[in-house]
Amino acid sequence: MNFHGLVEMIRTGGITLAVILVLSILALAIAVERMVAMWRFLERARTLAETVKRCLYRGALAEARAACERSTSLAAEFFLVGFERHGRSSDNALEAAVDRERQRVSLTLKGQLWTLGTIGATAPFIGLFGTVWGILHAFNQIGAQHQAGIDVVGPGIAEALVTTAAGILVAIEAVFLYNYFMARLGRMSLELKLMAEEFVELLREQQPLPQAKATRPGEASEVAAAKPATQEA
Questions:
Q1: pLDDT per residue over 138-184, tens digit each?
Q2: Crossing angle for the helix pair 113-145 and 150-206, nearest 10 degrees?
Q3: Cβ(20)–Cβ(126) under 8 Å?
Q4: Which of 15, 122, 163, 180 is the most exposed place for a label (fewest CB within 10 A)?
Q5: Interhelix angle for 61-70 vs 76-85, to 10°?
Q6: CB neighbours (10 Å) of residue 191?
């Protein structure tokens, strides 16, 4: 189909077809934007997770935190939350805080994908509306001209068929893109969850043992006073 044929088809489809074409362009724009946002996301997250893991194995908390602060990966957000809560919260509170931040990262990755689902659900109905409108237009022409030849009803039927086909095609496009990105997000969310769980386990191992905690000043003086008495005895 040449350019003039495409223009003629759009003109025949009317405003309903124009709306469907706008929805198609919007779906493609959202898909490209999410593709750019997710580009190498898992690769950067895995690299950061490996760096943090190696540092924690050596007990280098400051080095691990510095690596997260320098990183541009979204995964650094829940790592930094874990470092902030380390030593200040219970194990359960630490785990809950890291998991909440991980879920926020997953929501950020989801972005405006809900729009793709909406387009996929509504585009066929917009095409159906164009179909009904085209048929009504055809019947109006029959009533106005008191004849039912192909020249009278043809334009209205053509509008109906074009908008119906376009609505179905755009719906297929949007649903395909939505399912693709949701499957990809599911895989990403699972990997982020595994990273977060392993990170929390390693942080727990970094916590000091109860007997290694520093004594309060009052306790230190009492211990010092008790030692000579023990020696005299």
A1: 666 666 666 655 665 566 666 677 888 889 999 999 999 999 999 99
A2: 170
A3: yes
A4: 15
A5: 140
A6: 16
